[in-house]
Amino acid sequence: MAARAATPKAAKIPQVPWDAARPAPVVLVSGPEDLLADRAVRRIRETLTASDPSVEVTDLDASAAVTGDLTTLASPSLFGEPRLIRVTAVERLSEAFLLEALRYLEAPADGATLVLRHGGGVRGKKLLDAIRGGAGDGIEIPCAEVKRDGDRSSFASAEFRAAGRRISPGGLRVLVSAFQGDLAELASACQQLLADTAGDIAESTVQTYYAGRMETDAFAVADAALAGRNGEALVLLRHAIDSGADPVPIVAALAAKLRAMAKVLDTRGPAAKIASDYGMAPWQVDRARRDAQGWQPAGLGRAIAFTAETDERIKGGSRDQEYAVERLVTLIASRGEAV
């Protein structure tokens, strides 16, 4: 599962994960993450088609709908095929659609699956409240924005698991680190790896495909520095900068690593419990614990403070950004003991 969205407080209907989406008389697909919403709607269509290939699929734009559109689409055809009605732009719905949809909830059409896609916002709240209150015997599929690395890791893992493949923890870390932006980019990267490789996917494979991405370069520098390999980290740093990498994301990668280490430095207990407490994936907890081995709280504190100072310097237009980052890498490689 990619992300766990918060259940609306007033919801009295089942909250179904996107990767377990199923048909129901009324399906509310809510939230801003379009990729997950599209996956959920596609899964519903595939389920209906597998049950009856003659399913009739129609689309309706709620922002442009006029009175009678929904009723017409939901009406049984001559041969009584099942119907799937996909309604988009419910967050911009017309007044005519709102009134007709509220009437529809009182008596949903037999054999019809009405899927309502609401991307967020307050418009349409009356309709959403009615569905969440139980009108129409519906379900809700929340598709919250995927922000946390733990959720992005879960999403990527699910992509490989669905294909019957495995990716190593290191490979997963590099992949998620390389695609911090649009979730669709991460999904495309997963599919490319699945299409172009066979068997289990190792960290080296991911590096081969995505070593050119700035984020991947940044975490390679961070990994070498945290492992105490100062010379290697400096070589990687110079190579990244000579290749056009901006020092800002490199420092950001170092800061992210140090913050994770600070969270787990004095923790005890199962990684899964700690991951839940801090919004991390269990493998991130394990990795942060390994990175933190040999560090003392004082040295970690100095490294975090120096990272913040370095970030301020390079964002303030320091004339020698590379030297500033080199000093930071050297400090981290010495576990905060020397510059």
Q: How would you describe this protein?
A:
- The chain is of the alpha/beta class and 339 residues long.
- It folds into three domains: 125 residues, Rossmann fold (3-Layer(aba) Sandwich), CATH 3.40.50.300; 66 residues, Helicase, Ruva Protein, domain 3 (Orthogonal Bundle), CATH 1.10.8; 126 residues, Zinc Finger, Delta Prime, domain 3 (Up-down Bundle).
- Helices cover 55% and strands 8% of the residues.
- It has a five-stranded parallel sheet, with helices on both faces.
- Helix 3 links the parallel strand 3 and strand 4.
- The longest helix is centred in the C-terminal third of the chain and has 19 residues.
- The two termini are 43 Å apart.
Shape: elongated
How is the biggest beta sheet arranged?
5 strands, parallel
Mean pLDDT: 87
Q: Structural class of the secondary structure composition?
A: alpha/beta
Enumerate the spans where pLDDT stays under 50 for 5 or more consecutive residues.
1-7
* Individual helix count: 15
Secondary structure: number of strands: 5
CATH architecture of the largest domain: Up-down Bundle
Helix coverage percent of residues?
40-55%
> What's the CATH topology label of the largest domain?
Zinc Finger, Delta Prime, domain 3
